[in-house]
Amino acid sequence: MHIGIAKCAERRVAMYSRNYGCRITDQIIMDGNKAVVMENQKLRLTFLADRGMDCVEMLYKPEDIDFMWRSPAGLHKRSEYLSNSGDSLGNYLDHNSGGWQEILPNGGGECSYKGACLGMHGEISSVPWDCRIIKDSEEEVVLKACITTLRSPFRLEKEISLKRDESAITIRESLTNLAKEPMELMWGHHPTVGKPFLDSSCRIDTNGTVGFSMDQRDFETQRLKPGTRFEWPAAGNGVDFSNVPGEDADTADMIYITGFPERAWYRVHNETKNISYGMSWDGKLFPYMWMWQVCGGSYGYPWYGRTYNLALEPWTSYPSSGLIKAIENGSALCLEAGEVRQTELCFWIKKEEI
Question: Which domain of life is it from (predicted)?
Answer without folding.
Answer: Bacteria
